[in-house]
User: Fold this.
Amino acid sequence: MDVMSSPEVVRSMPGGIPGSELAVIPRAGHGSNLENFDEFTRKKTEFPEKLE
Assistant:
C-alpha cells in the first residue's frame, strides 16, 4: 500500500484528468516502478495503445 497517498485519494484523481485511468499495481506502493517493475512496465506500455 502507498502510505503517501491513500487508496481513497488516489481513486478520486482520474475523474479530474480527461483520458486518464487508475492502474493498480499489486505488491507495490509509491515506488511501483521499483517495487513491481514488470507490472509497472506492462501497464505503462499498454496505456498509450488504448489511446490510439
